[in-house]
Fold:
Amino acid sequence: MASISMNNIVKRYGDGFPAVNDVSVEVADGEFMILVGPSGCGKSTLLRMIVGLEDITSGDMLIGERRVNDLAPRDRNLAMVFQNYALYPHLTVFENIAFPLRLAGASHDEVDTKVREAAQTLELTEHLDRKPGNLSGGQRQRVAMGRAIVRDADAFLFDEPLSNLDAKLRGQMRTEISRLQKRLGITTVYVTHDQTEAMTLGDRVAVLKRGELQQLATPRELYDNPGNLFVAGFIGSPPMNFLPGEVEGDQLKLPFGSVTLPEEKAAAAAGKGLLIAGIRPEHFAEAGSGDRGEDAGNTFQARIDVVEWLGNETYAYVPFEAPPEVQAQLTQLEKDLDGETIRTQLIITLEGGSTVQEGDEATVWVDAARFHLFDPETGDNLTVDPEHAGRILGRD
Ligand SMILES: Nc1ncnc2c1ncn2[C@@H]1O[C@H](COP(=O)(O)OP(=O)(O)OP(=O)(O)O)[C@@H](O)[C@H]1O
Ligand SMILES: [Mg+2]
Structure:
């Protein structure tokens, strides 16, 4: 096993456009690192440069202490699991897993021992004689991982391995990959555009946008302390709400009223004029529900436009108006997020037991300590806690 260091990595394809632009990420030995971002942000390119399938334009790629920029893929001792698994249809599961060992000229006994060990770990023992065509998507995935395991590779690299699976299987495989990685303790770099996979699998997550690293942090840090609008909008589901806001003293003035901010947040945004205020749907509640509601300072009246009841929770929508400065930044954010719609309406998560109806005027409580305030020009989060935000673009 080994660490992987990407130092100031740049990749320019033929037309000179930097698909990866000065990215530095250090993956510790045994760490599960996620590369996440919208389509075209350069995550596959970065992964392919680690494995050696793509030349590095500039920067240093290190595996352990060794600079590998000029090493052929087979000399890097990494195992890549592709989206389509790349299994051999005419070979049995056993032979598919054994393939890299046979290629390396391993003895009959070694092949047998290692394949059976891997099959045991992956719960494939009873399928060893079958062909990939007769396996489920999840089983095929495991065969592909088995092939990676038997090689004693220094690291596993995954490029969107679950994107071909249906939602249920994807959930199962996600848990399985997580369990396996922890058990094997193998350094792993995993590419996905799915923020749920990023949050659930990663020890740390590198968020990329148009070839640039936006933030490198733990899932919790990304959720609690997104460094900028892009990360804030990308991480979390349903996504964070963005509203026009202005700070006066300790008051944050919003389209539907004012809330009292904690001192340090108010101070960070004092005198900055019109800002973008971000607040996650789950940091609202219906006043009087649960143990909330006593905090009368941070409740407001909301006209509920649409209600979506999901059983375990309810989404309530509250429309609002945004001035042009804020609207422009939100439109840009929408483009950055791959066309995901940032609506000029609040999404509020209420309890599943809520009886709120469409058209109701509800008293809504908000946890004002969870507000983030963003500079509308730069998108920077002015209220970030740098101690708990990992590394943020433009701040290191
Ligand atoms: N061989 C190539 N020649 C020229 N440009 C390329 C080549 N491969 C990728 N690109 C460009 O580099 C950028 C990054 O591509 P990459 O495949 O790394 O994105 P990605 O983040 O993996 O996206 P996706 O989620 O769609 O797989 C894109 O703008 C893409 O068009
Ligand atoms: Mg890709």
In short: The two ends are 29 Å apart (CA to CA). The chain has a mean pLDDT of 90.
